[in-house]
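Operator note (shift B, R.M.): manual run for HTH luxR-type domain-containing protein requested after the automated queue skipped it. Running by hand, logging everything below so the morning shift can see what happened. Input copied straight from the record, untouched. If output looks odd, do not overwrite the archive copy; leave it for review.
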Amino acid sequence: MTYNETEMFTHNTRVIHKAIARLHVHPATELYSELFGIGSEAYINYLRHFEDPLETEVQIERFNRIAGSIIYRVLLRTLQRTQRNQAKFNNTNLEDLVYNGHEPARTDDYSLLGFNVDTFYGALRPLDLKILYLHATGKSNKEIAPVMQLSEATISRRIRRMRNQLVTMINGGDMNGE
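Run finished. Output pasted below as returned.
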């Protein structure tokens, strides 16, 4: 039983679905559709370059196992590349974003709590603001300490103090603990 390219793809789309399932992507998402398109292209490209005959079910099954592995790797690399690019975009400075016309939306979600973030930022020392910025970018205390020329213990104490001040302000208190 020989299949042409279209029949082979149509009868074996489960290979692509299984590769996407291994990535734990939910079928009802837009990402799933995008990955299915990329996986379909990879399957068809591999089918076109495959030189052995695909006449028996055993040969087709062997082809699908290899194709599934290749598709999984292609999709995994695609997801990882996308995540790296998003991380690069999210770690850019606000000035660069504004300059390129990608300024983030400015909404004050804390207005419902009667809390103003600018008041919190204004009450912090410049050193604390730098530590807060580095901490918000995902750096650990161990990574922040050499940059700020402080000990890890000092960094953790300052972060803990800032958290306590933030909780106090959100609960309606003053930054000075009054």
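Quick read of the result: Confidence is low (pLDDT under 50) at residues 107-112. Residues 133 and 139 are 9 Å apart (CA to CA).
Leaving this for review. - R.M.
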